[in-house]
Design goal:
- The protein is α/β, with parallel strands linked by helices and 523 residues long.
- The chain has 4 domains: 98 residues, Glutaredoxin, CATH 3.40.30.10; 218 residues, NADH-ubiquinone oxidoreductase 51kDa subunit (Rossmann fold); 91 residues, Ubiquitin-like (UB roll) (Roll), CATH 3.10.20; 84 residues, de novo design (two linked rop proteins).
- It is 40% helix and 15% strand.
- It contains 21 helices and 18 strands.
- The strands form 5 sheets. It has a 5-stranded mixed sheet, with no helix packed on it.
- Strand 16 and strand 17 form a beta hairpin.
- Helix 7 crosses helix 10, helix 10 crosses helix 13 and helix 18 runs antiparallel to helix 19.
- The longest helix has 18 residues.
- The chain is globular and about 75 Å long.
- 54% of the residues are buried.
- The chain binds 1,4-dihydronicotinamide adenine dinucleotide (NAI).
- The site of 1,4-dihydronicotinamide adenine dinucleotide (NAI) has 26 residues, from helix 8.
């Protein structure tokens, strides 16, 4: 019998390691031969630890499994394939939450042992790289342009155009004979509240990221890549390093890639828990060993990036979409989505929600469908009141906006953003003036301090919101808050100060009743 027990952070937090030990021990006690495979997560977090058993008709899921369930699972399920156990969710692939998704990037997530090169290759792995090795840089860039892929970190800049800029750029440093020195940098500093899709890629399917970065290197003529990983992800760190070592040993990384004569090296670098280092220029400073301070743009990193050389800086999800695009063709990817938002977005449901997890769907699904059909309403059972989509720098949405299609332009039209696809849900116990205060407070803590509107504006913002909450000269302070927000939007150097006002303004606009009466001191 083969039993799958995930090894990703979410499952581990829910006790998956202990569970794996106990299941192995129980099998030994019963004299049963059981093979345990530690897979990645399927992204059905409310069922973690989700244990799956291989049967003739497919993998059957049980979850959430606790130690106390092991005995009955052995008696009634693991060895017999019975589906009557109360924790049985049926065939994994048939669970509606998973079945209704359109998984292109996450197609393999949770199916395989993340560091097994063999599993990866059985499921279309490295086919994109093999195609890319037959193409020239321009051919690869054209394929990415055809896909319509836009940066999945949040800003949605067309990836193909960014790659073209780097392909066309001249570096000022020559290395390895006649090759211009350029770099591929993966932004894995996933800092947005409620997001975990980057982590899931790295923990469930790391070779996909390695393959995507290698293809980017071939496209732009860069032979060195770095993954800038947040240090809060120690499991991802370990899995990435293990995968990189195995890929190198098997010729999928390093000199002479698959005997093509081409080169791509890849290393992981750890951040130091600063949200601002997810901003691309701070990230580059940090990667160079300096303090993570924002650089002025221009020049763009595409032209003057890491160590002053042309650099592709892409989010994990953008790079992870590349193997599919190369292997299946850009058009296959562009067949999903709507308008100028093509392909899929892995939405991440978090906060006060019954069924949190990862939902990859084509752009165009409504927020309400995600919240109700997938999420199943709030975890508390209380009515939902506000939803923040796109991380701590994006707007809070009231129910009147939940029917907006999830795609870049429709969200922009309502003054909101999709960001990195994170969705954080609040029930009716939320105090939106406290949330507005939190936005400013977050900026106080995370500002790099280089520009005044962000560094000082956010501190003044906390004070002004406190005065409003204390009923101290409210009307005048509401006006002052609006002025301050505009100054931060117009005058900040990067998105940290420039977008912090968006959640504040949306809270004031859509939840004015929370700013109209004296409030207890913020928690
Ligand atoms: P941006 O619009 O300045 O740039 C987007 C990207 O396109 C950058 O890589 C930039 O260098 C590149 N670019 C722009 N013009 C170009 C050109 N002509 N040629 C080549 N490349 C070009 O946005 P920024 O400041 O990089 O990102 C802001 C976004 O980040 C926000 O929308 C926010 O939602 C998101 N964000 C995401 C977080 C996460 O954890 N994933 C955390 C915080 C913010």
């Amino acid at each position: 019998t083969t039993i799958y027990i995930p090894r990703d952070t979410t499952a581990l937090a829910m006790g998956a390691d202990l569970l794996a030990t106990e299941i192995a021990a129980e099998a030994a006690t019963r004299g049963e031969t059981v093979e345990i495979i530690r897979n990645g997560s399927r992204g059905l977090f409310w069922l973690e630890p989700l244990v799956e058993v291989e049967t003739a008709s497919g993998r059957i899921a049980y979850g959430p499994v606790e130690s106390k369930d092991i005995d009955s699972l052995f008696d009634q399920a693991f060895l017999t394939g019975e589906t009557s156990h109360p924790l049985c969710q049926g065939l994994t692939e048939e669970i509606p939450y998973l079945k209704k998704q359109q998984r292109l990037t996450f197609a393999r997530a949770g199916i395989t042992d993340p560091v097994s090169l063999e599993h990866y290759q059985q499921l279309d792995g490295f086919n994109g790289l093999k195609k890319a090795l037959q193409m020239d840089g321009q051919g690869i860039v054209d394929e990415v342009k055809t896909s319509g892929l836009r940066g999945r970190g949040g800003a949605a800049f067309p990836t193909g155009i960014k790659w073209q800029t780097v392909l066309d750029a001249k570096s000022t440093e020559a290395r390895n004979g006649n090759q211009d020195q350029k770099y591929i940098v993966c932004n894995a500093d996933e800092g947005d509240s409620g997001t975990f899709a980057d982590r899931m890629v790295m923990e469930a399917d790391p070779y996909m990221l390695i393959e995507g970065m290698t293809i980017a290197g071939l496209a732009a003529g860069a032979d060195q890549g770095y993954i800038y990983l947040r240090s809060e992800y120690p499991v991802a760190h370990q899995i990435l390093n293990e995968a990189i070592a195995k890929a190198e040993a098997a010729g999928f990384l390093g000199d002479n890639l698959l005997n093509s004569g081409k080169t791509f090296h890849l290393e992981v670098r750890l951040g130091a828990k600063a949200y601002i280092c997810g901003e691309e220029t701070s990230l580059l400073e940090s990667l160079e060993g300096k303090r993570g301070m924002v650089r002025s743009k221009p020049p763009l990193p595409a032209l003057v990036g890491l160590f002053g050389q042309p650099t592709i800086v892409n989010n994990v999800l953008s790079l992870a979409a590349i193997p599919y695009i190369l292997s299946q063709g850009g058009q296959a990817y562009a067949n999903y989505g709507m308008g100028r938002s093509l392909g899929t977005l892995p939405f991440q449901l978090a906060g006060n929600i019954k069924r949190g997890g990862l939902i990859e769907l084509a752009f165009g699904v409504t927020l309400r469908e995600l919240l109700e059909e997938y999420g199943g309403g709030t975890f508390s059972g209380q009515p939902m009141r506000a939803v923040q989509v796109g991380g701590p720098l994006c707007a809070y949405l009231p129910e009147s906006q939940w029917d907006t299609p999830m795609e870049y332009e429709s969200f922009q039209a309502i003054g909101a953003g999709l960001g990195h696809g994170g969705i954080v849900v609040f029930d009716n116990s939320v105090d939106m003036s406290e949330q507005a205060r939190f936005s400013m407070e977050f900026c106080v803590a995370e500002s790099c301090g280089k520009c005044t509107p962000c560094r000082i504006g956010s501190t003044r913002g906390v004070e002004v919101i406190d005065r409003i909450r204390n009923d101290d000269n409210r009307a005048a302070n509401m006006e002052l808050l609006e002025d301050l927000c505009e100054t931060m939007i117009d005058g900040s150097l990067c998105a940290m100060g420039g977008m912090t006002p968006f959640p504040v303004q949306s809270a004031v606009k859509y939840f004015p009743e929370d700013f109209n009466q004296p409030k207890p001191a913020a928690k």
